[in-house]
Amino acid sequence: MTLSLLDWRRRTAALYAAARSSADPEAGWRTWRDGRDELFADHPDSPLDAAARESFEGLPFLPYDPALRFEPALEAVEPARLEVPTAADGTVPLHRIGAVTLPGLGRLDVWWVALYGGGVFVPLRDETAGQGTYGGGRYLLDTVKGADLGSSGGRLVLDLNLAYHPSCAYDPRWSCPLAPEGNRIDAPVAAGEQLPPGGGWY
Questions:
Q1: pTM of the model
Q2: Counted domains in the chain
């Protein structure tokens, strides 16, 4: 961890705070998107290397779809534990704390990252993985890193328009846990961050 990476996390958390506080979810999404583009273009800890940043014109996203914002209740499930290996950060322990059902799409496990401080983690791998989106899936929530859209009364805010690729999708120097079996759905999610045109990275 460096102060530069700390700054990245602070700025990411601020973008999610702005999205949470916006009375208009689409306007909050736009603020988050614009800020994410700025971080990728200019921040020292951008997942893009210097050459890629020179030609970077913004992350590709599908248009906002209000039907893909959900506030599902956290459902009780049998507890489970996963030890997820990563390339550089060792094993990440995950504890399943519940599940959510997204109408028309499927069910996703909700995990607690069982490291110091902890946090809620909800990855997603849908039918677009490996085609329109990164093959390892995307993230919806990762509150350890500030990716938090809020909760109320046992319900999580899950806006699939904010589904984003983890940094390891852009550069193997980053490590990230990928979507386990309970976070894979057979339906396509036509929202969120997409692969760049041509299917490659920058």
A1: 0.94
A2: 1
